[in-house]
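Researcher: Please generate the 3D structure of the following complex. Treat every line as part of one assembly.
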Amino acid sequence: MGEFLLVTIQVDMHDRLAMALQDDLTRMIAASEARGVLIDISSLEIVDSFIGRMLANIAGMSRVLDAETVVVGMQPAVAITLVELGLSLSGVRTALNVDAGMELLRSSLNGSKVLYGSHFD
Amino acid sequence: MAVISTETIPVQSEPDVVAVRRRVRDASAKLGFSLVDQTKVVTAASELARNTIIYGGGGTMQLDLLNGPRNGLRLVFEDKGPGIPDVELALRDGFTTGGGLGLGLGGAKRLVSDFEISSRLGEGTRVSITRWK
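Model: Done. Output below.
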């Protein structure tokens, strides 16, 4: 039985804020013993190499802490730009929206519930 | 080609990068760029603004709205930093001296129509990008 963390990014983050999110989230995964992390980026208008690296870092760190990360809600224009920029986000699982992401986590972890939502803004 | 308007904004600190993104978004929307093109030019500007701060020690971005056969947005990032010893190497994907992904310069180049870079050791770096509608 595991639990999920849901993080919604609602602001255009400067780099230090993105680093803070990475640190906070890693601590939260360890403290809550969450098995899954959903990061909703549907409000993000761009993902540049810095934000991309942050998402990859979170996925990597959560994996080491025995949790799965799914990034959900990427806008199509952001996805097109990311690929052209040269970022493949390898190692980061993605889903179209929160529901699909939750389904993905459930199917890989089997029967979990959302622990709590966290809005980062 | 005529320059409709020009303005220069500071690129000195992290919050300035956010301001650059917002300003470039507004300008590209005003020129009637598609959402994808807006996103591309904003992303390129974000990469170059960060480079200006991290590698150039801060500088400026000049933003020109262009009017010609097609509308265009030209962004010129300038710093008085140490300069880039090997520009060709710096443009290569995966090359970084700053601990990043090494996608900034090369990635920004792929996201725009025109890309020019000039750098002098000890004097600084100037990167000019243009995206046409």
